[in-house]
Design goal:
The structure is a single chain. Helix 1 runs antiparallel to helix 2. The chain is mainly alpha-helical. It contains two helices and no strands.
Length: 62
Amino acid sequence: MSLGGVPGGRAEQMRQKVQDLKEAAERATDPDERRRLQDQARRLREQSKQADARGEEDVDPM
C-alpha cells in the first residue's frame, strides 16, 4: 500500500490503517496475534501524529 501523495493524505491513510489494525486485533482469537496487531496500531498512530505535525510545517503554498 502506497502512503505517498496528496499532503495530508498520507496521515489520513495511516489513521485508516490504524483503525483497520484495531478492528483486526479485536477479532483476533490468538492473544499473541492480538498483541502484535495492537502494537502495530500503536506505532502507526504515533507515526501518523508525527506526519500531521510535519505536514503543517512542510506545506508548500504553491
